[in-house]
Each structure stands twice: as C-alpha cells, then as structure tokens.
Design a protein that fits this description.
This protein is α/β, with parallel strands linked by helices. It is built from 13 helices and 21 strands. The structure holds zinc ion (ZN). Zinc ion binds near residues 258, 264 and 317.
Amino acid sequence: MSRLDIVTAYVAARWRTATLHGQRLRAWQEHRATALVERVRERSPFYRELWAGAPASAWRSFPTVSKQAMMEDFDRFTTVGVTRDLAMQVALDAERRRDFSAVVHGCTVGLSSGTSGHRGLFLVGPDEQTRWAGTILARAIPDLRPGHRVAFFLRANSRLYERTSAVVQFRFFDLMQPLDDVVASLNDFRPRLIVGPPSLLGLLADAKERGALRATPSRLVSVAEVLEPQDRARLERSFQAAVGEVYQCTEGLVAVTCRHGALHVQEDVMVMQTELTSPLDPTRVTPILTDLWRQTQPIIRYRLGDILRLDAAPCACGSSWQRIAAVEGRQDDICWFPRGDDTLRPVFPDAIRRMILLADDRITEYRAEQHAAGTLEIHVAVRDPRDFADVAMRLREAAHEMLREYGCRLGACSVSEGVSASLPGAKRRRVMCTWRVQQVTAPVLAT
Ligand SMILES: [Zn+2]
C-alpha cells in the first residue's frame, strides 16, 4: 500500500540532518512551506477561508489554528474530505475492537489522547506514517544496523507498525496488553531499541528490577508524554541504557534528543514559532507549529497548548536546530493561587512537580490536582506506608512555603496516600488543573 519504504525515509532523514542548517535550512523551509500552503489551499476549505487570499510567502504570519477549531471544523479541515463523524466512528470502533486495520480513504485514523477534555482525531496517509517512523529512527538511533530489532509501544496500533522491513525488524506492542504478556514477548523478541511512553517504560523498569524482564535494550526512547528528569535517571539506572526523548503533537514530530541528551526541534519537519506564555516570565513560551510534511491533516500555524523553556546555547553535538531545555507541561495545567489582593497568579506545573519531588525523597510517585483556585490535592505513594503521615506533613509545609515565595496563599491542601494508575493507554499527567477560569485569558496571560 505504502509507496515510501521505511529505509528510504530513514536515509532521507539522515541526509536532512547532515545538510539542512543555517541559510540552507531557511531556504528549504520556505520552499516546502509555500508549496504546502498552495496545495492545502486547493484542498482544505477551512484553510482556504482562513488565509483569505493572502500570498503563500506570508505563511509565517497567517492566523493561528487551535485544536478546538481543528476538531470543530474537521470536515473542512483535512484535504481528503473525510467527515469527523465517519473518522470518529472508525477510530472508536478500532479502539473497542483493538483492531486498527481499518482505513478511511486510504488513511489511518486515530484518537490522540486528549489532555484537556476533548479528544483529538488524527488522520495520516501511509507515506506520512512511514516518514514519521523513519525520521524517529534516524534521529533516535543514527547507528541503526541491519538486523536490529525495534519494539514500538503505542496507544493505538496503526498499519505501519506491523510491517517489517528487510533491514529493521519492527514489532508493535499495544499499550492495552497485559504487562506479563508484554514482558514475555519482549524476552522473546530481544529488542535493541524500545520506544514507548515513559509511564510504560517505568513499568518495564519495575519488571527489569524484579528480574522478570530479560531483554537488554541499548537504548530507550520516550514518546507521547513528558519525560521528567527523575524518570529518565531511573530508566538509565534500571536498564543501563541511553534514554532518548521524542516530543510530538497530534502524531507530528516536534523534537528529539541528540546524543548529548539535548532536545532539538526537528526543523526539517516542524517550524516552531513561539509566543511568551506570560508577561511575568520571559523564559517560558508556547509553540506555534507548522508541519512541513503533513498534507492529509495539515498543521499550519497550529497553537500547541504546551509550555516550553528554550535553550539558546549551542549544542556539543554540532546541530544548529533549536534546543528545548524543558517541556513543562500543558498550559491548561497551570494552577492558580490568590495573591494578597486576591488576583490570581499562575504557578507552572513544573514548579509544583519540583516542589513535590524536593519535599521528601521517600515519595515514589505522585499526582497533584487543582479543582478550584487556591487549592491543591496531592496524591503520593511512599515506599514504607509508616512514613506517610510524616511525608504528608512535610509536603503541606513545602506547598505553603512555595506559595509564600510566589506571594500567594494556599487554601485547602489535602494530601492522600496512593496514586491510582492512569487508565490504560491514557496519557499521564502528574500535575493537572481541572477547572477553567475566565480571568485566565484576559489580564494575566495577555502577551
Ligand atoms: Zn545536540
């Protein structure tokens, strides 16, 4: 079915890594983006109207697109004329039956894990999928050799991952599979590379430490969720393997770590423009993304609700591609606390994460939720249950202390024991804000 072969995609991605930098990269991005805009304008009524006849060369200042707009106008958004109802029906049906062989107009349809209430639909053509996988491999394991085996864990299967090529053996693993089955399959398959979300890799590390998992991958690659530093350290320790990270959005590749562990925007795939997240903090930005390759569901000036910290320093790997110092979580998961004058101040998910991790080293897992302004509900797991009361007390103190430093008050703060597992296949969020406020949009976040 696919015309593009994964090895070709891999080689092409290697070539782009080596050649596209500086002026040459800019010229290449410009060329691809303008050609993309012209093609999309012909086939997507949504974009055609949005751009209202503006020249393709002005693409860097086109209006931005939100996930909500993309989902609401899905029927007119894609370039293949698939309706949202049909795509949703196929995707839900595939999830229910755990059979992802269905395609719509030759495209694979899937649900991207929704973090802010609404689930996203994605639609990708066979070549787009192949290029995605080939590029991830090229960037995550540049030293791929014939015979290498790669285990890919994904929330939803798609046709791509069941193909094997003559060079690389791919095996797809469904995130919904029972862990014992997964461990047995991995012991049998003995992959050199395991790609999966960090919550799954953490479970595999447990199995490794128990001695149940005998596979000895030389590299792990974290995808689909934020990889926190303590999780990375733990994976490196358990597997004695290098840990890479892929950062993506609606199945498009945004950034991948290099051999020096720096997360670089994949500028041959995605053009990242940025906006300040808050005028209070010039170091944090939210990205506006343009995917130079996706045509089925074009991502052009797409506003991604994530908070990033950028790093302007050059990387020892020699790549000029933009470095991301940290992905700090979803903008939707900013928590809000009242200052002395009762106005609300944002506290970033990363600050809450750090507060919890530094509060007490007996904490093994946690989740923090905010259900109303000024409050915090913290769930923690501790190694020895006898320590819980003491840990809870120190956590409350640390929370009060952090908010004092922000000039804010902490209202109700509960600490409870035990962290329930996420739903299978659901995206893990360690800090989440479940309420939505009107005032967030107006004075504080205006940039
Ligand atoms: Zn680098």
